[in-house]
Amino acid sequence: MSRLRPKAPAQTTAATLWAILATALLAALLLDGGAGVNLLLVAVPATLAGAFAARAAGRRLRAWTLVWALGGAALLAVPALSDAGWPTFLAVVAAIGLTGFALHGGRGWPSMLLGPVGLFDSLGNGLTWVWQGVRQRADGSRGRWWPLLRTVLIALGLLVVFGALFAGADAAFADLLGALMPDISLVQAPWRILCFIVGLFGAIAVARTAAAPLRWDRLSLGAGKARNRLEWALPLVVLNLLFAAFNAIQLAVLFGGYDKVLSETGLTYAEYARQGFWQLLMATLLTLVVIGLALRWAPRTGAGDRRLVRVVLGTLCVLTLVVVASALRRMDLYVDAYGLTRLRISVTTMELWLGVAIVLIMAAGIWGARLLPRALAASAAGFVLVFGLIQPDAVIAQQNVDRHERLGKIDVNYLEGLSADAVPALDRLPEPLRSCSLLDIDERLRDDEGGWYATSLAEARARAILDARPVTATASECGEPSREEEYDPENDPYGAP
Fold this sequence. Notes:
The protein is mostly helical. The protein has helices at residues 14-30, 38-56, 63-76, 78-81, 85-104, 109-114, 117-140, 142-169, 171-180, 189-211, 229-254, 258-265, 269-296, 303-338, 342-367, 372-389, 392-407, 412-415, 423-426, 433-447, 457-468, 475-478. The longest helix has 36 residues, at 303-338.
């Protein structure tokens, strides 16, 4: 581990310390009542802390550092636009990962896989580093601390006194001031203290990592022992033949052979779709593992070996893309029969990314694998970003409403558990389905009146819709709507006649 660590970081600057403190204070004030634009606001001083620390250490801004930083900022915009918690969680996790990439640099597999780990490694060292910086700054400027503190206290006192007077003089100004200012009360003190600590430690980790990042690219992943051509290629050729046989059937089905296949198997469309998707998803994942292991043990004595590797693995990649297309087609049939859910849209997105990953691996086989780790990381972050921006709950509601208009079937029990993102689509339903599907969402929005900084655009839009067209049904009137069974052959719209 010692060879991964660079020399001791530069002394903590005053700008870095102020940025760390600002991050902690903003976290304490804004991180309450949910996620919205507050995450971006807290990230701004944390980013400045890292920039100041990197500049003091003599580090230069590189192109990929800027790409990762902008990508992280874009991911933090997801909670400002969407109300759903699960895309927000994925976006925040991905943003932390991109932050690790931006701070550590590097382009190899160790940097892409272990970059975010360096943030946690910096916590312990960062506390000592910041404390030493605070002591040095205090010893060198004892005479300037009290005038600065006195100035800040006077300014705060003036704001409080005159703000209270103006609020008492005008109700509109009081409402505006109440909407802009965070609600500070003793009841929320423990939560705000926790947010302060999280913001403080997070900013310290960012600044310390920027000042002296771990050098993950110094880790060398040695190539495995090369195998001879027969030992390496024969298992893969057999696997290619198996894929080819499977894909021949899939292509026949994709181009209109459903009736023949279903008549021979006795399955319905929905059963056929559900039966194979998960197996095909697992097959795609395992194929990536096989490709990675095959590259590790690939023969590499000459041009003929490289040509063999490209042909065998290239064929496997092309055949795997057909498997991906088949899995997506099966899921499309299943969703058409039973509607879209969070699990189904998530695994479909995962399958799409696996297809993109295979294409990137094929491109690396042609033009070289130098950028492959970065390309895979960037594509994964891009999928998380797009997944959050499309608002999957809204897509789920839209598909289910369209399906209801086409088939007259809908699962209100499931839809009422969606987030405010779904309100515009659910608003299209006829009564009483509309009110029953929006009842829980309406109650959650009324109970969760957060500040402007913790309110997403989707929540504001949903509140406007529900204010214009209120929910008219009650929980007792809605009762317990009938939930569609996962599979019912008697009611399968795609069943054999």
